[in-house]
C-alpha cells in the first residue's frame, strides 16, 4: 500500500509538473471539404490526446457553407477548447472564416487583419432569384446570430456581416460592445501568454480556465493526401487539369496505342472533376469549355477554313471566365492563366490541322493511286489498241495504248487494270 501510494504521488507530481500541450494548425486555403476534414481530424486528435487547447491560425477568403457547418458542428462538440487566430498581420477571414471565428471558444486577431463579409452567394452555377437569395441570407444570418449569442459576442454585428456584407478590423471587432473577438495578439506565442489563466465558457455553458503558460506547441500539418487534394481544389489548377485532360484523351484518340496521353489525360480529368465537385462551379461555363475544346479538335478532321477554331477559342475563353460562380477573386479562374492555355491549345490544334491538310495533299505512295501519273519508257512499240511493254516505277509492265507509241518513247500511266497499264505519250 505504501509503495502504491508513493507511486501514485510520484505520478501525480509528474503530471502537475509536465507542461501543457497545445495543438497548432495552419489553415491557409478556401474552406472546402479538404480543409474541413483537416480541421475536424485535428480536433478529434486533440480530444483523444487530451491536450489543453487547439489553435487554428486562419487565413481564408471564404468557402462553402456546408463545409463550414461541418467544422462548426465538430467545434461546438469538441472536448478540447478551440481558438481561432486570424494572422499574421495583413491576413483576413472573410465569409466562412467569419462564421468559424465567432463560433470558436477563443476568437483572436493579429494587428492589421479583418473579418466579415459573410453574405452567401450561389455555388451551383444557377442564379438565385430575390426570394431564394433572401431565404439563404436569412438562414446564414440566423446561424451567425445563434453562434454569437451563445458565445456572448455582438449579435447585431454578426448579423450585419451576413446581411450587409460588413467587414471589421481587429480594433473594430475588439472595441465593439459587446465585442466580436476576445483579444488581439501578434502571434501564437503571445496569444498563449495572454490566454494563461483566462476563463472560457464553452458552448454548453461549462467554464474552463486555460493554463497555457510554458505550453509545448505541437504543429499539426496536413497529410500528403490532404495537401494534394487541397492543392488540386483551386480554380486555376482545376481549369488547367481540365484542359490538359481533354487534350490528352483527344491525342490518344488520334493516335490509338500511344498509352501515355490517354493515361495522363484520364488522371488529369479525374482530379479536375474532384476539384470541380468541391468548388462552386458554373456548369454553363464548364460546358462551354468542353464545347470549345471539341471544336478545336474537330478542326483537324473537318476543313472549316478556321471557323471551328474561331468558335472553339471564343467558347473556351468565355467558358473559362465564368467557370466558377463566386464574387471572390480567389474562387475565380485567373485571366493570366486562361489566355496562355487558350492560345496554347489553339496553337496545338492549328499545328495538327496543318499537318493533316499537308498529309492529304501529298501523293499516295502505294497502290493503284500511286501508279497514276508515273512516267516511264516504252520498251516496245505499241499499236493503237495493241499491247506492249513499258518500264516504270523500277519494273517492267504490260501496257496498252489508245494511240500509236514508238519504241523508246516516254509514256505516262493514265490507268491501271490488274497488272496491265494504260499509257499515253508524254
Explain how this protein is built.
This protein is α/β, with parallel strands linked by helices. The protein has three domains: 17-225, 2-enoyl-CoA Hydratase, Chain A, domain 1; 234-361, no CATH class; 367-425, OB fold (Dihydrolipoamide Acetyltransferase, E2P), CATH 2.40.50. It contains 15 helices and 16 strands. The strands form four sheets. The protein has a six-stranded parallel beta sheet with strand order 8-5-3-2-1-11, sandwiched between helices. α2 links the parallel β1 (21-28) and β2. α10 packs parallel to α12 and α10 runs parallel beside α14. The protein is rod-shaped and about 120 Å long. The protein starts with a helix and ends with a strand. The model is unreliable at 1-16 and 123-127 (pLDDT under 50).
Short description:
With 426 residues, the protein is an alpha/beta fold.
Could you name the key traits of this structure?
426 residues; OB fold (Dihydrolipoamide Acetyltransferase, E2P); 2-enoyl-CoA Hydratase, Chain A, domain 1; 5-stranded mixed beta barrel; 16 strands; alpha/beta; 6-stranded parallel β-sheet; 3 domains; rod-shaped
First-last Cα distance: 124 Å
C-alpha geometry? rod-shaped
Mean pLDDT: 83
Helix content: 40-55%
- Tally the helices: 15
Oligomeric state, counting identical vs distinct chains: single chain
What is the CATH homology-level superfamily of the largest domain? 2-enoyl-CoA Hydratase, Chain A, domain 1
What is the count of distinct domains?
3
Name the beta content range. Answer: 15-25%
Instruction: Tell me the CATH topology of the largest domain.
Output: 2-enoyl-CoA Hydratase, Chain A, domain 1
Strand order of the largest sheet: 8-5-3-2-1-11
| Number of E strands | 16
Low-pLDDT stretches are 1-16, 123-127
Using only C-alpha atoms, the radius of gyration works out to 36 Å
CATH architectural name of the largest domain? Alpha-Beta Complex
Amino acid at each position: 500500500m505504501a509503495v502504491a501510494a508513493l507511486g501514485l504521488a510520484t505520478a501525480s507530481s509528474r503530471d502537475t509538473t509536465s507542461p501543457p500541450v497545445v495543438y497548432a494548425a495552419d489553415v491557409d486555403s478556401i474552406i472546402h471539404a479538404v480543409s474541413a476534414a483537416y480541421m475536424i481530424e485535428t480536433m478529434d486528435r486533440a480530444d483523444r490526446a487530451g491536450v489543453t487547447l487547439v489553435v487554428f491560425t486562419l487565413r481564408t477568403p471564404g468557402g462553402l457553407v456546408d463545409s463550414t457547418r461541418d467544422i462548426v458542428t465538430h467545434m461546438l462538440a469538441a472536448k478540447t477548447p478551440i481558438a481561432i487566430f486570424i494572422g499574421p498581420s495583413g491576413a483576413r477571414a472573410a465569409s466562412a472564416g467569419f462564421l468559424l471565428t465567432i463560433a470558436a471558444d477563443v476568437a483572436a486577431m493579429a494587428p492589421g487583419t479583418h473579418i466579415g463579409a459573410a453574405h452567401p452567394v450561389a455555388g451551383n452555377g444557377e442564379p438565385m432569384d430575390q426570394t431564394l437569395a433572401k431565404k439563404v441570407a436569412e438562414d446564414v444570418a440566423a446561424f451567425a446570430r445563434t453562434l454569437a449569442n451563445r458565445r456572448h459576442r455582438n449579435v447585431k454585428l454578426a448579423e450585419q456581416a451576413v446581411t450587409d456584407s460588413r467587414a471589421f478590423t481587429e480594433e473594430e471587432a475588439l472595441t465593439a460592445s459587446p465585442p466580436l473577438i476576445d483579444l488581439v495578439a501578434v502571434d501564437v506565442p503571445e496569444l498563449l501568454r495572454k490566454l494563461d489563466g483566462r476563463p472560457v465558457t464553452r458552448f454548453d455553458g461549462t467554464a474552463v480556465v486555460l493554463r497555457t503558460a510554458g505550453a509545448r506547441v505541437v504543429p499539426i500539418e496536413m497529410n500528403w493526401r490532404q495537401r494534394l487534394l487541397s492543392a488540386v481544389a483551386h480554380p486555376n489548377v482545376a481549369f488547367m487539369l481540365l484542359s490538359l485532360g481533354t487534350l490528352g484523351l483527344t491525342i490518344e484518340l488520334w493516335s490509338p496505342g500511344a498509352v501515355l496521353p490517354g493515361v495522363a489525360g484520364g488522371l488529369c480529368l479525374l482530379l479536375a472533376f474532384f476539384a470541380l465537385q468541391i468548388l462552386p462551379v458554373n456548369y454553363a461555363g464548364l460546358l462551354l469549355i468542353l464545347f470549345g475544346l471539341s471544336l478545336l479538335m474537330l478542326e483537324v478532321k473537318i476543313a472549316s477554313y478556321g471557323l471551328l477554331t474561331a468558335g472553339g477559342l471564343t467558347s473556351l475563353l468565355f467558358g473559362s471566365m465564368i467557370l466558377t460562380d463566386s464574387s471572390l477573386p480567389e474562387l475565380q479562374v485567373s485571366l493570366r492563366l486562361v489566355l496562355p492555355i487558350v492560345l496554347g491549345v489553339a496553337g496545338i490544334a492549328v499545328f495538327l490541322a496543318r499537318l493533316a491538310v499537308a498529309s492529304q495533299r501529298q501523293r499516295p505512295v502505294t497502290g493503284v493511286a500511286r501508279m497514276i501519273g508515273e512516267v516511264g519508257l516504252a520498251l516496245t512499240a505499241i499499236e493503237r489498241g495493241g499491247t506492249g511493254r513499258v518500264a516504270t516505277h523500277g519494273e517492267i509492265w504490260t501496257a496498252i495504248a489508245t494511240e500509236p507509241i514508238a519504241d523508246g518513247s516516254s509514256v505516262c500511266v493514265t490507268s491501271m487494270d490488274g497488272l496491265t497499264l494504260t499509257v499515253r505519250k508524254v
